[in-house]
Design brief:
Number of strands: 5
Distance between the termini: 53 Å
Largest sheet: 3 strands, antiparallel
Strand content: 5-15%
Number of helices: 7
Amino acid sequence: MTIDFDMKQITIHSGKGARDRFTTFPESIIPQLSEHLQRVRLIHEKDLADGFGEVFLPGALDRKYSNAAKEWGWQYVFPSGRLSIDPRSGKKRRHHIDPSSINKAIKTAVRKAGIVKRVSAHTFRHCFATHLLQRGTDIRTIQSLLGHKDVSTTMIYTHVLRLGGEGVASPLDDLQL
């Protein structure tokens, strides 16, 4: 994951389908995100001092850039709370936080909020797309942000915009009475 504060953009590298995906984030979270990254950097520096601080690099990147695995720019934004043995290399290193931790936190928050519908991390993806449509974002931009190959996959979100008459507002609503 790469975070570009100037562009307010997050890039997820080698996501589903081995493709990079891009999304935006609100300016309002920049202070908290910056503070989080400062804490993560301290963890990384301690790991380096203890002889660790190396992450797994995909493909041949570890051979191409021999020290990159220990560089700050390659570290996980959301690292695990503990070191573990990497089964691919046998090296002791810090991996990213386990997705099940996020899912458990979502479940707890949903229960505490009294929400009775099923909510998962994927629900946020659907809400994101739906809100973009409701704000007037064009379908091709949403397709790109969601990483859909085909626009027809993205079109499933348009059902939320349907009002009477296939989503067309009555011209009478424009009249000033």
